[in-house]
Design goal:
Shape of chain A: globular
Helix content of chain B: 40-55%
Order of helices and strands of chain B: HHHEEHHHHHHHHHHHHHHHHH
Largest interface: A-B, 43 and 37 residues
Oligomer: heterodimer
GO molecular function (chain A): transferase activity
Keywords (chain A): Transferase
Strand order of the largest sheet of chain B: 1-2
Pfam families (chain A): Actin
Shape of chain B: flat
Number of strands of chain A: 21
Protein name (chain A): NuA4 histone acetyltransferase subunit
Number of helices of chain B: 20
Strand content of chain A: 15-25%
Structural class of chain A: alpha+beta
Number of strands of chain B: 2
Strand content of chain B: under 5%
InterPro entries (chain A): Actin, Actin/actin-like_CS, ATPase_NBD
Radius of gyration of chain A: 23 Å
């Protein structure tokens, strides 16, 4: 036990992201609870007939009369239900609903009592001190946690890759960030963020919902609103009937939510980037992929599935000129991060690039990144876990490793300290001294320990099995 | 069975068990079991036949046992406990709980607390500051702040630059990029992150120097050295690193091309040297004593490598120790090593060898004593020389004329073998020179004939052309003919003519008798080397 440096104190790890909230036990390799960050709510109490139609009722003291969280939260149609998301640009701006999400994940999904476990929460590298203190307040005052710590996702992603120093490239749902991490510290001056994933998303939305030369505009109705449909040939207009009874109860925010979900699914299914940079001929030569929308409309997408995602790496100069506030592409983010780094440090960072975040699972993304980087730097080494779970929940995994290390337990902010020092201790402990020296030496051991466990447990995981089989064969 | 067993015992005159009729059969059985237990590997029947005096071999007949099964069940179960603990590295009394072996001491220190190592920071008093650490560019507050930050981040300077934000002082921890990217505009007066390092280390050095030191001077100076920081040098170094990174692709390509060019030059240099040494070796023969050609990695460490290798090689290859460091053996000088000096042997041992007919053979000095170079013991008669295949018939013929059987010596002593070898050599030399002679004679003859034809042509004008041509054709045809059935004819002729003709023709070198058949043997070219090889062979053999 001591050999691995692990000492599990049944800590909980909570990672709040734009698309989902991940929660689980420290020392595990995957989060136990993954719930969408979006939630449904009613502003005005409707008639008694709809109330308590499922068990996920919110806190009575919430600003909303009713809140629907989790698996059956936003994705269930309810007349007049609005959709909210507590995160904006990766930062929590609505702490009430964020607390509800965490309570749901811990209490309803994991079935644990938060007051019995130390809790480690993650924060994006660009988090504000006020946000950090507010989170500590919630954990201590409302969740009654005995101990609390807030750790940076940049650092945690580096830890999940078993590295103390790394250049973490995190592609989330709403934000992409490039974070230089040195010895477990984020270099704030090198931090570069942009909302490029949202730009790609809106491009895809625009592309799908507008007619092109070869097809009509695509209806992005979700399956909840479709009564029946008939199979049609690729490219043919869809034949489906809508549930007219539900259409009236669809709110603007729910419409936005389901359209965004359809677009996201389209990107995730067919989207991709060309490994060697944009080339019309190569894009045309790639096999088109078929995708079917809930309406039954289906078509082959060839050139466009690459053109949309190319925004991650390249934007047309006239577009950048006309939009001064256009989000930066990934290469320019990396350059920006590097500009502030010491040249000696750059070589270290280039040898330890960690690619993480669900957005990076796009087809050919890591290959493209490698080719982009090797064009301007020699000796580039990219660490991109092939396991999608590891890539999507990298921050959580790093937190799980961190909170299960024996040397980490001196860093918890205890309830006693909280009562004595108040909010000041959060910044002092978590920001000034996030991770201390001796801890770093242990992280690598902890990581290998994590990997071993991963391999033991992972055989139940289909993806893992296919991956190992591919590797063997 | 019991009866037969006792019978055999008596037959083998082995003392049988005293049969006591008073004992009950059970008791006797028990006694027997106690006295001798059947060893493993002998069948019960056999054991009852031969009794306890089993041959010791039987012990080895025991059939191999399988690997013992792991004993999983009976191991004592370790008890674990969900126990609360306090961490000694914490200042508060936070109680966390973890699983631990129940046997461990409840009051034991937390095992991970020992990793909480704190670096010893330098702290100065106000008095010390005013006395030693005054600096026009730094206020006391900022110095305090700097020391705090350095302590917080355990002198991780990259992080310190990042987090250093002292309010009210000059902008010290400004953009690194200013320093790194605008090298041309870089100004010494601009404050840079190096200032932080410089200030911290110089302050520490001053403190160490001026404080009373309990240890010895050496440890103090080593501590001072560990706090050494040269700001100018560091800036220059960073500039170099930055300029290395700011190279354009063209520059990088050019650099690479230059590098390859240098490598190529080096290689050709090495090749030239190798060729030169090879040439020297050929010129001065196998035993020139030149060292093996060394593959130098680079021209810079050329000499030392040779020296070390020579030193290692020296004793084993029979160099005298004084030769190793002789100046003439330096690789740049075209010089041969002095000839190998054999160690003079002890006269006493020479006498002893002579008395007992012991002949010592030494390995040639430049052959390494490897397995391949080793000659096993052999019969001398096996190593008798054979004539060259092309010349074999003639040589055998001469041997027959001399009345010597060259394939089998009656008494193959060392001397006899040497003589036979010498004889063989002489005979082959004789045959070869005869052959050359014959060829020359024929050439002269042909040339004379041509001259005669031309003269007659000149004399007769165009009239004698036809005849001359005819002769020319005829001679050419002769030669062709001779080539065609060269070997067969040569053998026939040599057998027919016998020794007399050949001897006569070689001894009387002036004889002009045209012999077409000796002409026909045209393989004369390799003969020059053959004799040399033979002599080499002899050298190796003794």
């Amino acid at each position: 036990m001591v050999n691995y440096g692990g000492d599990e104190v049944s800590a909980l790890v909570v990672d709040i992201g734009s698309s989902s909230v991940r929660a689980g036990y420290a020392g595990d390799d995957t989060p136990k609870a993954v719930i969408p960050s979006s939630y449904g709510y009613f502003n005005n109490p409707p008639g008694g007939d709809v109330s308590m139609e499922n068990g996920n009722s919110g806190e009575p003291k919430s600003a909303y009369s009713q809140i629907f969280i989790g698996q059956n939260g936003p994705s269930t149609w309810r007349a007049g239900m609005e959709i909210g998301n507590p995160l904006q640009d990766g930062l929590i701006h609505d702490f009430d609903s964020a607390r509800s999400l965490v309570e749901h994940a811990l209490g309803d999904v994991m079935r644990v009592n938060a007051s019995e476990h130390p809790i480690l929460v993650t924060e994006p590298p660009w988090n504000t001190p006020a946000n950090r203190e507010r989170m500590a307040e919630i954990m201590f005052e409302e969740m009654k946690a005995p101990a609390f710590y807030i750790a940076n996702t940049g650092v945690l992603n580096a830890f999940a890759a078993g590295k103390g120093s790394a250049l973490v490239i995190d592609i989330g749902q709403s934000m992409a960030s490039v974070t230089p991490v040195v010895d477990g510290f984020v270099l704030r001056k090198g931090l570069a963020t942009s909302s490029i994933p949202r730009l790609v998303h809106s491009h895809a939305h625009h592309f799908l919902s507008n007619p092109t030369q070869t097809r009509h505009a695509i209806d992005l109705y979700p399956h909840q609103l479709i009564a029946n449909r008939l199979p049609v040939d690729p490219g043919a207009p869809p034949r489906f009937t809508l549930r007219e009874d539900r259409l009236a109860g669809v709110t603007q925010s729910w419409k936005a939510w389901y359209e965004a979900r359809e677009v996201d699914e389209w990107i995730q299914s067919v989207g991709g980037v060309l490994e060697q940079g944009w080339n019309d001929q190569v894009a045309a030569s790639r096999p088109p992929r078929q995708y079917e929308f809930p309406t039954g409309y289906n078509n082959y997408f060839g050139h466009d599935r690459f053109a949309v995602c190319e925004q991650y790496f390249f934007q047309k100069p006239h577009f950048v000129q006309s939009n001064a506030t256009a989000p930066k592409t990934i290469p320019s983010l990396i350059l920006e991060a590097f500009r502030t780094c010491d040249p000696e440090l750059r070589q270290v960072l280039m040898g330890n690039v960690v690619l993480t975040g669900g957005g990076s699972l796009l087809n050919g993304f890591s290959e493209r990144l490698a080719s982009e980087l090797s064009r301007s730097f020699s000796h580039v080494k990219i660490h991109a876990p092939g396991n999608p779970t590891e890539r999507r929940y990298g921050g959580w995994l790093g937190g799980s490793i961190l909170a299960s290390l024996g040397t980490f337990h001196q860093l918890w902010i205890s309830r006693e300290e909280w009562q004595e020092h108040g909010t000041a201790i959060v910044g002092q402990r978590c920001y000034w001294r996030p991770v201390i020296r001796q801890l770093l030496a242990r992280v690598k051991h902890g990581c290998s320990y994590e990997r071993q466990k991963h391999q033991l447990q992972g055989y139940q995981d289909n993806e893992w099995v296919t991956r190992t089989m591919v590797m063997k064969g | 069975m019991a009866a037969s067993a006792s019978d055999i015992r008596s037959a083998l005159s082995i003392a049988s068990q005293p049969q006591n009729p008073a004992q009950t059969p059970a008791q006797s059985k028990k006694l027997q079991a106690q006295s001798s237990r059947k060893p493993d590997g002998i069948s019960r029947e056999l054991y009852s036949l031969i009794g306890p005096s089993a041959p010791s071999l039987a012990a080895q007949l025991a059939k191999p046992k399988l690997k013992q099964k792991p004993n999983l069940g009976s191991r004592s179960v370790v008890k674990w406990e969900w126990r609360s603990f306090t961490n000694g590295a914490r200042k508060d009394k936070l109680q966390l709980r973890h699983w631990t072996k129940a046997a461990t001491d409840v009051n034991a220190d937390y095992p991970f607390a020992k990793y909480n190592v704190q670096s010893t920071p330098y702290i100065y008093t106000d008095e010390e500051y005013t006395q030693y650490l005054q600096d026009p560019e730094w206020t006391k507050e900022e110095t305090d702040f700097l020391f705090n930050v350095v302590r917080e981040f355990d002198t991780r300077w990259y992080v310190i630059y990042d987090r250093y934000d002292f309010q009210g002082g000059p902008a010290r921890s400004m953009e690194v990029s200013v320093v790194l990217f605008k090298l041309d505009t870089y100004d010494q007066s601009t404050l840079s992150p190096q200032d932080l390092k410089d200030r911290y280390y110089s302050a520490c050095r001053k403190l160490i120097r001026n404080r009373p030191w309990s240890g010895d001077e050496a440890s103090k100076s080593s501590l001072l050295a560990s706090f050494h920081f040269d700001k100018e040098r560091e800036i220059t170094r960073k500039k170099y690193v930055a300029s290395l990174e700011n190279r354009t692709p063209d520059q990088v390509a050019e650099e690479e091309a230059l590098y390859i060019e240098v490598k190529r030059l080096e290689q050709s240099e090495r090749k030239f040297k190798k060729d030169r040494e090879d040439l020297l070796r050929v010129l001065s023969g196998v035993e020139s004593g030149l060292p093996d050609v060394l593959e130098d990695e680079s021209p810079f460490n050329n000499l030392p490598i040779i020296d070390t290798k020579k030193k290692r090689k020296g004793p084993s290859s029979g160099f005298l120790p004084t030769d190793v460091d002789s100046p003439t053996s330096a690789s740049n000088v075209i010089a041969l090593d002095p000839p190998i000096v054999r160690k003079p042997r002890d006269p006493k041992s020479i006498a002893y060898d002579a008395q007992h007919c012991i002949i010592r053979t030494d390995l040639p000095p430049n052959v390494q004593a490897t397995k391949a170079a080793h000659h096993p013991a052999f019969m001398r008669s096996f190593k008798l020389p054979y004539p060259k295949a092309a010349l074999a018939p003639r040589i055998n013929q001469i041997f027959a004329e001399l009345g010597i059987n060259n394939t089998r010596l009656v008494m193959p002593t060392r001397d006899n073998c040497a003589r036979l070898e010498g004889l063989m050599e002489h005979i082959s030399a004789l045959v070869e020179s005869k052959k050359i002679l014959d060829k020359l004679e024929y050439d002269i003859q042909v040339a004379k004939k041509r001259l005669g034809i031309r003269n007659s042509e000149d004399r007769e004008g165009g009239g004698g052309g036809g005849k001359g041509k005819g002769v020319g054709i005829g001679s050419a045809m002769d030669v062709d003919d001779g080539d065609a059935d060269a070997d067969a004819e040569a053998e026939e002729e040599s057998v027919r003519d016998g020794r007399a003709q050949s001897i006569v023709s070689t001894k009387s070198a002036r004889s002009r008798r045209p012999t077409r058949r000796s002409m026909s043997i045209s393989s004369v070219d390799t003969n020059a080397t053959a004799s040399a090889r033979a002599s080499n062979k002899r050298k190796f053999r003794n």
